[in-house]
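Provenance

Sequences were taken from public entries as deposited. Structures were produced by running a predictor on each sequence independently, with no templates supplied. The record for 7,8-dihydroneopterin aldolase from Virgibacillus alimentarius is shown for reference.
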Amino acid sequence: MQDRILLNNMQFYGFHGLFPEENKLGQRFHVDLELFTDLQKPGKTDDMSDSIHYGHVYELVQKIVEGEAKNLLEAVAEEIANQLLVSFDIMAACKVKVIKPDPPIAGHYQSVAVEIFREKVS
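Predicted structure for 7,8-dihydroneopterin aldolase:
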């Protein structure tokens, strides 16, 4: 499937991380999504009910990233992917990238991130 809906650089403030300071003070997180679905029908009908509402996707991701603290970015990404696949019937698969721009790791780099791809099980 080649059709995708992209939501890029969504920004949130959450409390995920291994260190107590991260869980107490929190930090910024960015999320990029690719939602794989057939966009031919909504392209023809121009009807929102035939597609995936971007605002609903944003709210779902916001609730997860700004919600209960997790130790690992991997767990945040997995929960986002699982919730997306359950919440949107027409979505066949998704790619989720969770970025931590300011992790408490010594060194010079732009960010750390995880990226996962998940498909609906037939």
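The first helix runs from residue 20 to 25.
Residues 4-119 form a domain with the GTP Cyclohydrolase I, domain 2 fold (CATH 3.30.1130.10).
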